[in-house]
Amino acid sequence: MNPIVKMVKPESLRPNSRNDFDPLSEEEYANLKENIALNGILDALTAKKDGTLVTGENRYRIALELKDHADEEVRRRVESIPVRYYMNELTLEEEYDILEGDNLFRRHLTAEQKKERLKKRILRKYKEDLELDNRGGDRKSEASKEEAKSNDHSLTLIENSSVEGNLFSETEGSKIHPESLIAEGDKKSKDQGDLLIGNSSKDLAKKISENENIPFGSAKRYVTELKKELQFKDPKLAKKKAEKKKETVTKKDKVKEFQKKYSKMSASAKKTEVNRLLSKLIGVRKKREKLEAQVTTFLKEDSELVEKLVAVGEKKRVQGLLV
Where does the record place the ParB-like N-terminal domain (predicted)? Predict the structure, then answer.
């Protein structure tokens, strides 16, 4: 990708609209801000050649905030900040891959948050492999190649002692230390005892483990879970339809219950109740009208932006958008 590092003014950059990670907590943001005020930004942000950030949005925002700091030394530290520019054109996939990987490495996510993010990443990058595996795709040739390699070279199992979400290790303490696998006979015995995942799934888990730098055991669990989720995709839709039907039945029950209560009301109470319902209906319709007007405006703006991009030869970029 040929990145180069430059010192630039923070106002020359702009945030990335594709960053879908939750904001830092107030405490995390305050700690980061204090650290930057004392030491400046030591680790370069990354950006595309047009100045759109790929990673480092929080550091960018803090740099802008500290420009008006009372202390002149602090202002000097953020007057220019290090940015690693990707001079080659990044695809949308490459851009998001860098953004996501950096956030997974830096963010103090809970174990559950990290797991969900990793599963989402794996599904995005290996969905075709997972679906093929679910359909019983033939990976015998790949398995044979792997077996042939194992006869000449002893396989190693990647076990990372850092938190399993660390995709991009930068410190000496978090480097990967390969360990030799147990004897082939023991390995086969262990594999036969693992009833949750087939051989082709193990091949996929191994590939994910190596590519994403996560423990093989974790990769196997994620593959198993994601395959089940993809398998039950259609039943989930059926369940949603059933829930919708149930919702319709519930609405009818509510109407019948209202009719029953209404029939027991006095004439004045009936009048009051009807006026209340009419007033509520007017309010709902006004909100709906306002919302529909907003949707119409957005659709017009969307159409105009698409036409402009297509007019300058960016049709493929538009078609490749994930939203």
Answer: 6-103
pLDDT, residue 117, reads 83
Question: Which portions of the chain are predicted below pLDDT 70?
Answer: 1-2, 106-108, 136-199, 233-242, 244-245, 247-249, 323
pLDDT attached to residue 238: 52
Q: Decide: pTM greater than 0.70.
A: no
